[in-house]
Design brief:
The structure holds 3 protein chains of 3 kinds. Chain A is mostly helical. Chain A is built from 9 helices and no strands. In chain A, 77% of the residues lie in helices and 0% in strands. Chain B has 9 helices and 10 strands. In chain B, the strands form 2 sheets. Chain B has a 6-stranded mixed β-sheet, with helices on both faces. Classes of the chains: A mainly alpha, B alpha/beta, C mainly alpha. Chains A and B meet through helix 5, helix 6 and helix 9 of A and helix 2, strand 6, helix 3 and helix 5 of B.
Chain lengths: 223, 240, 235
C-alpha cells in the first residue's frame, strides 16, 4: 500500500473553509450554549417548582440521549411542525442546546464549590440575591469550572463532526466528499483527523493560557 | 441602637438560643464571650438576618428585622459585618471589594466610592494594597480589608464574628488595633471574641453566654474581675 | 409506500436497543481491558511504555470518533482485503479503539490518585513492582475508577449511535429505517431518544447505587465524570 498526499493538494482551500465552518459553529454553540447553561442552572436551583422541574428534565434529557438523535429530531422532526432549518442551522441549534445541558451540569459543580461565606458577605452588605449571584458567585464559579468548560469546548469541537451526517458542510463532511472524489481514503482521513487533532491541541494550549490570564487573582492562592 | 427581646433560635430540634434579652446603646462596644457552641455567633448572625429568628423580636437602628415586612437588605446596609474567615471576594481587587456594595447597593458614583475606598484603606493601613488581589494578602491584611469593606456603607453598627480567630497569633494585634481605633471614634460594636484582653480593654460591657442564654453581663472589670456565676468563673479560669 | 408507526416498529426499535447494548458491552469490556493495560503502561517506570501509551491516548482523544469509525470502515478492508469483516465487528473495533484511550486515561488518573505512601509502604515490605501493582495499587485504583468509568460507559452508549454511518443496525439506525418508512420522524426519534434515556439513566442510577453502597463516593460530581478530551499531562 502506498500513500500519496499530492492528490489532496487541490482540495486544501476546501478543507480550510470546512475547518473554519467547524470552528465557528463550535464557537457559536459554546458561547450561546454556555450562557443558556447558566440560566438552566439558575432555573434548576431556583424557587419556582415548575421551572425547576422543566430545567431538570431538559438537562437530563439532553445528557442521556445521543447528540445524533437530537440532531435528527431537529433536522428531520421539526419540518413536521413546519419549522425548516438548513443543515447548518440545524447543526448549530443541536450543538447549542446539547452544550447548554452539559454546561448547566458543569456550572452546578462550580457554584456548589463557591464558599458559602462569600454569599453571606454579600448578603451582609445588603445585596439582593441576584446581585450576589452576578457580582460575587459568578466569577469564582467560572474559575472553578474553567478547566471543565474548556474540556467541554474541545469535546464539542470534536462532536461538531457529527453534523456532517445531516450534510452540514464542515470538516468531516468535506473529508468524506474529497474521499469520494479522490479515493485517497487513508490520506484524506489522516489529513482530516490531523486537522481535528491540531485544533484540539491548540484549544487545549490556548485554554491553559487563557486560564492563567483571566484568573490571575486565583493563581497566587485562594482567599 | 439594638434591642433584642426573648430571642429563640432552633436548628431543627436543636435549640441554640433559649431566650436572649439584650440592649446595645449607641457608641457602646459589647463583647460576647463564652465557650464554643454557646450560641454567641448565632446570636450575632441573627442581628443582621443571616439567621432567621425562630421567635422573639430584634430591633436594629429603628428597624424591626424580625418583622416579615421589613426589607432586611435595607437594615443590612446599616449594619456592617466582619467574618472569622474574612470572606473577601477573590476575583475583585482590594479596592473593588470595598467599592462593590456602595456602587451596587448604595448607588454611589464610582468616583465617589473610589475616593471613599482609598480613604478607608488608608485608615486600615493598606493604602499600598489598593490594586492587589485578596489572595496575595496575609490573613491580617485580608481582615483589615474586610473591615474597610464593611465600613464603606457607613454602617451605624459593626458586628464582628470572631475576627481574629483565624489569624496567626503574631498578626492578631494589627486587626485589634484597627478595631480599637473604631471604638475610640464612637462606633457601636458587637464583637464575638476570644480575645479577653481586647474585651477587657476596649469593651464597655462584657456579655458571657453559655448554653444559649446570657449567664452574666456587666462592665468588663466586673465580669472578669469578680464573676458572680460559677459557669463564668469556670470559663474564665480556663481561658485567662 | 408510507405506513404508520405500529407495534412491530417498536419491536424492531427494541431489537436495535439490544444491539446497542451488546455493542457497548463488547466494546466496553474490550476497551476496559486494553485501557487498563495502557493505563498501567502510562504510569509505569518505563519511559518507552509511558511514551507509547500516552501518545496513543493523546491522538485518539484529539480526533472525533467519526474519523475512527471511517478509518475502521474504509481502512480495514484496504489493509486486509482477504478478511470480510461484518458491520458489527467493524463497529466493535472502532468503539474499542476509542474506548481504550478514554479508559486508559481514567485508569492512569486512578492509579496516580492512590496515595504515594501506599507504594512506599509496599516497597518497605519488599514487594516488587508487579506485586505492588497487583496487591496494593490496583485494588485501590479500581475503586477510584468506577465513577468515571460509569460516566464513560454512558458516553460510549450515546456515541455508539455514530456507527449508524457504516450501516450497522443498532438503535439509531433502526430509528432511521422506520422514520423513512413511516415519515413520522418526531414520533420515531422520540421513541429512540426515550430508549437511550432509559438505558443511560439506568446505568447512571446503577452507578450512584454502587457509589452509595460501597461508600466509594469521592468528591467527584457527575460533571467531572464527563470523559476528558485530550490534555497535555503525561506526554
Amino acid at each position: 500500500m502506498t500513500f500519496y498526499f499530492g492528490d489532496l493538494l487541490p482540495f486544501s482551500g476546501q478543507l480550510a473553509a470546512a475547518l473554519w465552518t467547524s470552528v465557528y459553529i463550535t464557537l457559536i454553540a459554546m458561547a450561546v450554549g454556555s450562557a443558556f447553561g447558566v440560566l438552566l442552572y439558575v432555573g434548576k436551583t431556583g424557587s419556582n417548582r415548575a421551572l425547576r422541574s422543566v430545567c431538570w428534565w431538559y438537562v437530563e434529557a439532553f445528557r442521556n440521549t445521543p447528540l445524533l438523535v437530537q440532531l435528527y429530531l431537529i433536522y428531520f422532526g421539526l419540518p413536521e411542525l413546519g419549522v425548516n432549518l438548513n443543515p447548518t442551522w440545524a447543526g448549530i441549534v443541536a450543538l447549542t442546546l446539547n452544550n447548554a445541558a452539559y454546561t448547566a451540569e458543569i456550572y452546578r459543580a462550580g457554584f456548589e464549590a463557591v464558599p458559602h461565606g462569600l454569599v453571606e458577605a454579600g448578603q451582609a452588605l445588603g445585596m439582593r440575591r441576584s446581585q450576589v449571584f452576578r457580582h460575587i458567585e459568578l466569577m469564582p464559579a467560572t474559575r472553578n469550572v474553567f478547566p471543565a468548560l474548556t474540556n467541554q469546548f474541545i469535546l464539542l469541537f470534536l462532536a461538531s463532526s457529527i453534523a456532517s451526517i445531516i450534510g452540514l458542510p464542515e470538516l468531516m463532511n468535506a473529508v468524506l466528499n474529497i474521499n469520494t472524489q479522490t479515493y485517497r481514503t487513508f490520506e484524506i482521513l489522516a489529513v482530516g483527523g490531523g486537522l481535528y487533532f491540531v485544533v484540539s491541541l491548540i484549544l487545549s494550549l490556548a485554554s491553559k493560557a487563557a486560564e492563567s490570564f483571566f484568573f490571575r487573582w486565583g493563581v497566587s492562592g485562594r482567599a | 441602637m439594638i434591642t433584642v427581646k426573648d430571642l429563640h433560635k432552633k436548628f431543627g430540634s436543636n435549640e441554640v438560643l433559649k431566650g436572649i434579652d439584650c440592649h446595645v446603646d449607641e457608641q457602646e462596644v459589647v463583647c460576647l464571650i463564652g465557650p464554643s457552641g454557646s450560641g454567641k455567633s448565632t446570636f450575632l448572625r441573627c442581628l443582621n438576618g443571616l439567621e432567621t429568628a425562630t421567635s422573639g423580636t430584634i430591633e436594629v437602628n429603628g428597624h424591626t428585622i424580625t418583622d416579615k415586612k421589613t426589607n432586611v437588605n435595607v437594615v443590612r446596609q446599616q449594619v456592617g459585618m466582619v467574618f472569622q474567615h474574612f470572606n473577601l471576594f477573590p476575583h475583585l481587587k482590594v479596592v473593588d471589594n470595598v467599592m462593590l456594595a456602595p456602587v451596587k447597593v448604595g448607588r454611589t458614583s464610582k468616583g465617589e466610592a473610589r475616593a471613599k475606598a482609598a480613604a478607608l484603606l488608608d485608615k486600615v493601613g493598606l493604602a499600598d494594597k489598593t490594586n492587589a488581589y485578596p489572595g496575595s494578602l496575609s490573613g491580617g491584611q485580608q481582615q483589615r480589608v474586610a473591615i474597610a469593606r464593611a465600613l464603606a456603607m457607613n454602617p451605624a453598627v459593626m458586628l464582628f464574628d470572631e475576627p481574629t480567630s483565624a489569624l496567626d497569633p503574631e498578626i492578631v494585634g494589627e486587626v485589634l488595633a484597627v478595631m480599637k481605633d473604631l471604638a475610640r471614634e464612637g462606633m457601636t460594636m458587637v464583637v464575638v471574641t476570644h480575645e479577653m484582653g481586647f474585651a477587657r480593654e476596649v469593651g464597655d460591657r462584657a456579655v458571657f453566654m453559655d448554653g444559649g442564654v446570657i449567664v452574666e453581663q456587666g462592665p468588663p472589670s466586673q465580669v472578669f474581675g469578680d464573676p458572680q456565676h460559677t459557669r463564668t468563673q469556670n470559663f474564665l479560669s480556663k481561658v485567662l | 409506500m408510507l405506513r404508520s408507526f405500529n407495534w412491530l416498529d417498536l419491536e424492531s426499535l427494541l431489537r436495535g436497543a439490544v444491539w446497542t447494548i451488546v455493542l457497548c458491552v463488547t466494546a466496553g469490556v474490550a476497551g476496559t481491558v486494553l485501557g487498563l493495560l495502557l493505563g498501567i503502561a502510562s504510569s509505569s517506570p518505563s519511559r518507552v511504555a509511558r511514551w507509547v501509551a500516552s501518545t496513543y491516548v493523546l491522538i485518539i482523544r484529539g480526533i472525533p470518533l467519526l474519523v475512527i469509525v471511517f478509518f475502521a470502515y474504509f481502512g480495514i478492508p484496504l489493509m486486509f482485503p482477504d478478511i470480510d469483516l461484518s458491520a458489527f465487528l467493524t463497529a466493535v473495533i472502532a468503539l474499542t479503539v476509542f474506548a481504550t484511550a478514554y479508559m486508559a486515561e481514567i485508569f492512569r488518573g486512578s492509579i496516580n490518585a492512590v496515595p504515594h505512601g501506599q507504594t512506599e509502604a509496599a516497597q518497605a515490605l519488599g514487594l516488587n513492582y508487579a506485586r505492588r501493582l497487583r496487591f496494593v495499587v490496583l485494588p485501590q485504583a479500581m475503586r477510584i475508577a468506577v465513577p468515571p468509568g460509569i460516566g464513560f460507559l454512558i458516553a460510549l452508549i450515546k456515541d455508539s449511535s455514530l456507527v449508524t454511518v457504516i450501516g450497522f443496525v443498532e438503535l439509531t439506525r433502526s430509528g432511521t429505517t422506520i422514520s423513512n418508512l413511516t415519515a413520522e420522524p418526531i414520533l420515531t426519534y422520540s421513541v429512540v431518544a426515550v430508549l437511550y434515556f432509559v438505558i443511560c439513566y439506568g446505568v447512571s442510577r446503577l452507578g450512584s447505587w454502587y457509589e452509595n453502597r460501597s461508600g466509594s463516593r469521592m468528591d467527584t460530581t457527575e460533571a467531572e465524570n464527563q470523559p476528558h478530551a485530550l490534555q497535555l499531562e503525561g506526554v
